């Protein structure tokens, strides 16, 4: 069984507002996890994935990957 990917409402809304090519790029990077530019965030329970100027904050619990937040580089940590 593969990994289930769940998106928060914020993550879904952000993705749906982006152009199709950006959506495909972000979804492809998420599907390729744990590969890519991933780091554990200090002081938080989340990991971050860098996709160009976008950041994807996520948490992994067994076979479930919860995408908590997707935003631009400067906004995601606020």
Keywords:
78 residues, alpha+beta, YaeB-like fold, five-stranded mixed β-sheet, 2 helices, globular
Task: Give an overview in words.
This protein starts with a strand and ends in a 6-residue tail after the last strand. A hairpin with a 6-residue loop joins strand 2 and strand 3. Helices cover 27% and strands 38% of the residues. The mean pLDDT is 90. The longest helix is centred in the first third of the chain and has 12 residues. With 78 residues, it is α+β, with helices and mostly antiparallel strands. The chain has one domain: RelE-like (YaeB-like fold), CATH 3.30.2310.20. It contains 2 helices and 5 strands. The protein has a 5-stranded mixed beta sheet with strand order 1-5-4-3-2.
Layout: helices, strands, pairs:
Layout: E1 4-7, H1 9-17, H2 20-31, E2 37-40, E3 47-51, E4 54-61, E5 64-72
Parallel strand pairs: 1-5
Antiparallel strand pairs: 2-3, 3-4, 4-5
Number of strands: 5
What is the number of helical segments per DSSP (H or I, 4+ residues)?
2
Give the % helix: 25-40%
Total number of domains:
1
Structural class of the helices, strands and pairings? alpha+beta
